Amino acid sequence: MSIISHALLFYFLFESLTQQHHQSQLSTGTVSAVRTLATDAAAAAPAPVVVKKTGASLWQRLSSFLVGAGLTALGTQFYILDEIRQGNRLMIRNQHELEERLRQLEK
Asked: With contact defined as beta carbons under 8 Å apart, do 104 and 98 qualify?
């Protein structure tokens, strides 16, 4: 069977099922044809208007800024200390090379 024939088969099957459902509702009287009016409804107290805050409060913004600044400072401190250690090793190595050259020249 082709796709079109399957589609038609399911369409007719669906239509027959919905017609049977509507007929059974009408025969049992479960469908209400009476419409209630707004004046018949019980008077309910109006709901209080709640204004939701959108966005972050000042404290939330300040704390997130401080956390970000603190983490950045820790990362920066790590990289600066690493750079200082490497620089110190390089200077000590250069100084040892100069001292070795001086010893060779003094001989």
From this structure: no
Token representation of residue 10: 């399911």
Residues 87, 18: Cα–Cα separation, whole Å: 83
- Which element (helix H / strand E) includes 91? helix 58-106
- The CA radius of gyration of the chain, in Å to the nearest whole number, is 42
The DSSP code sequence of 44-57 is PPPPPP-----S--
Please tell me whether the overall predicted TM-score, pTM, comes out greater than 0.90 for this model.
no
- Which secondary-structure segment (H or E) carries 45? none
- Give the integer Cα–Cα distance in Å for 75 and 69: 10
What is the residue-level pLDDT of the chain in tens, covering all 107 positions?
567 776 777 677 777 766 665 565 555 555 555 566 666 555 556 667 777 777 778 899 999 999 999 999 999 999 999 999 999 999 999 999 999 999 999 88
User: How far is Cα 17 from Cα 6, in angstroms, rounded to an integer?
Assistant: 17
